[in-house]
Amino acid sequence: MPIRLYNTLTQTKEDLQTVVPGRVGMYVCGPTVYSFSHIGHMVGPVIFDTIKRYLVYSGYEVTWVVNITDVDDKLIQRVQAEGATPADMAARVKALAETVTADYLDCLKALGVDGIDQMPRATEHIPGILEITQGLIEKGNAYASGGDVYFDVTTDADYGKLSHRDFEELEAGARVDPGDKKRNPGDFALWKGSKPGEPAWDSPWGPGRPGWHIECSAMSMKLLGPHFDIHGGGLDLVFPHHENEVAQSECYSGKPFATYWLHNGLLTKGGKKISKSDPETIVEMRDLLARHQPDTIRALLLSSHYRRPIDYSNDRLDELDRALRGFRTFFDRFERITGQSFYSLNASSQKTAGAEFPDEVSDLRRQFLDAMDDDFNTGGALGVLFDLLRVLNRYADLQQLDKPPVDAAVQARFVAGVVTLRELAGLLGLFREPSKSAEADSGDRLTGPLLDLLVSLRTSLRKSKNFALSDEIRDRLTELGVILEDGAGGTRWKITDR
Ligand SMILES: [Zn+2]
Fold first, then answer.
1. Residue 295 lies in a domain
2. In angstroms, how far is the first alpha carbon of the chain from the final one?
3. Could you tell me the distance, in angstroms and rounded to a whole number, from the CA of residue 241 to the centre of ligand 1?
4. Partners of 193 in the beta sheet?
5. Is the peptide bond before 405 cis (omega within 30 degrees of 0)?
6. 232 with 379, same domain?
7. Ligand 1 centre and the CA of 350: distance in Å?
8. Are 199 and 76 in contact (CB under 8 A)?
9. Is pLDDT above 80 for 487?
10. pLDDT 10s digits, 225-279
11. Where does residue 406 fall: left (phi above 0), alpha (psi -120 to 50 degrees), or beta otherwise?
């Protein structure tokens, strides 16, 4: 069965047909690095990491690009709120971007997102951005206005094709505000003139910085070519971000941009979208990783079909923690029976060896691969993994594998079945390495609350002007790799080396 994927552009499921046979170029919109990662930031990376794993398994050579937006109004607003002056603003934006990017990379690593081939920064692609902007002006698709440059949406007959919006209808009710530099309400900025002190680059239209949409066009076309295979991102990006990317890229290159547009559902908490503007919905990754195994978080993000919303709750995570513990218990059992570690099994040997494992196992393997072929249904595939665990435990029970001596052929079949489990779990990026011991596990669960407690004690000490002791707490924590950051909203801790 070929891989089929749902394309937002055509609103149908299509067979995967790549621009270059055997190769896939995939671009996924990354974060704007102005605050520490929350779990919502991890949805796309975990889903597309799993998609990449499956494409590679299916024989494709995949190049996956995720960008970092490291200059944007949000970064500027944040450093301004923290007291940046025109003299130090550019440096503080840069420092903020670096700190938040490092945190993002730590979170990706913890969740096993290791398939990203390139992570370009917007600020490294200014020449490409200027070139496209200039090209669009020359073609009559864009115009300079008061230090800014805008894309004129009325020049693109296809505008609206990705989000399936009737552009004329959109424009009918809207009007350009007096004093606005745009010609049409739907026009969007390719280049923004900057105010004194803001990060700025020279351009033919005066000092400024790129608009958000153009960054993604410049980086994707530069690294993957004007026409590539898969463009991904959250459902909330379809309009206007991706619509604008398509418009400016295709008007510039004269070629189709991405063939397939894949959009993942968003994470909700108690039915509400996780969003910075609603602090109650925010679950920061550093807190979550202090309390749960990374596999649990990864499994949560893969537990439904990627286009559907995922509802986050502590109960759901606890439930998944328990369910996944069943796998760890089984891996221990496997090691007792065979003397081999589950983690040392080489899953790739099986495909060529054609091992004879029980029929039930091979049926389940087929079901797993069918689910993944059908628009990467990771939720279905995860369900099959649980079925496989039950089958293997039952086989071990029935064959009394825990009581030696065990018939060598029976044991070989068992091992072959477990190799299948290793192979399929690896496709979801689960159980890549041994979990920490139960003790470390409970230690981990305490880390977050204990650090919160130390921070609050230190805050009290500072209030009572006991700076010697409060500084000692900070210094001793630094020695342990825990950094305290004092800010307007209080003190935050961050574990730097784990
Ligand atoms: Zn983007």
1. no
2. 42
3. 6
4. 208
5. yes
6. no
7. 39
8. yes
9. no
10. 999 999 999 999 999 999 999 999 999 999 999 999 999 999 998 888 877 777 7
11. beta
Peptide bond just before 185 cis, omega within 30 deg: no
Instruction: Report pTM.
Output: 0.86
Is residue 439's pLDDT more than 70? Answer: no
pLDDT digits (tens, 9 = 90+) for 352-375: 344 555 689 999 999 999 999 999
Ligand 1 centroid, distance to 198 Cα (angstroms): 22
How many angstroms is it from 496 CA to the middle of ligand 1? 28
Q: How many CB atoms lie within 10 A of CB 151?
A: 28
- Is 411 found in the same domain as 476? no
Separation between Cα atoms, residue 76 and residue 73, nearest integer Å: 5
> Both tokens of residue 245?
């990317």
Report the domain count for the chain: 3
27 SS3 class: strand
For residue 73, which of 248, 203, 199 has the smallest C-alpha distance? 199
| 405 vs 390: CA distance, rounded Å | 23
Three-state SS at 181: coil
Residues 320, 296: contact at Cβ < 8 Å? Answer: yes
Cα-flanking dihedrals φ and ψ of residue 310, to 5°?
A: -115, 125
Distance 82 CA to ligand 1 centre (A): 27
Ligand 1 centre to CA of 216 (Å) is 5
Q: How far is CA 42 from each of CA 94, 268, 320, 428, rounded to the nearest angstrom?
A: 23, 13, 17, 15
Structural domain for 385, as ranges = 316-427
Q: Which amino acid is at 35?
A: S
| Average pLDDT of the chain, as a whole number | 91
Please give the distance, rounded to the nearest whole angstrom, from the Cα atom of residue 280 to the centre of ligand 1. Answer: 26
Q: How far is the CA of 452 from the centre of ligand 1 (A)?
A: 35
91 and 154 fall within a common domain: yes
Instruction: Identify the DSSP state of 116.
Output: -
The Cα–Cα gap between 294 and 225 comes to 35
Q: Is 139 in the same domain as 257?
A: yes
220 CA → ligand 1 middle, Å? 9
* Distance from residue 30's CA to the centre of ligand 1 (Å): 7
Residue 320 and residue 242 share a domain: no
Query: Burial of 294 by CB count in 10 Å (0-12 exposed, 13-18 middle, 19+ buried)?
Result: buried
Average pLDDT over residues 392-417: 92
Which 8-state DSSP code applies to residue 306?
T
277-317: pLDDT as tens digits: 777 888 899 889 988 999 999 999 999 999 999 989 989 99
Q: How far is the CA of 148 from the centre of ligand 1 (A)?
A: 20
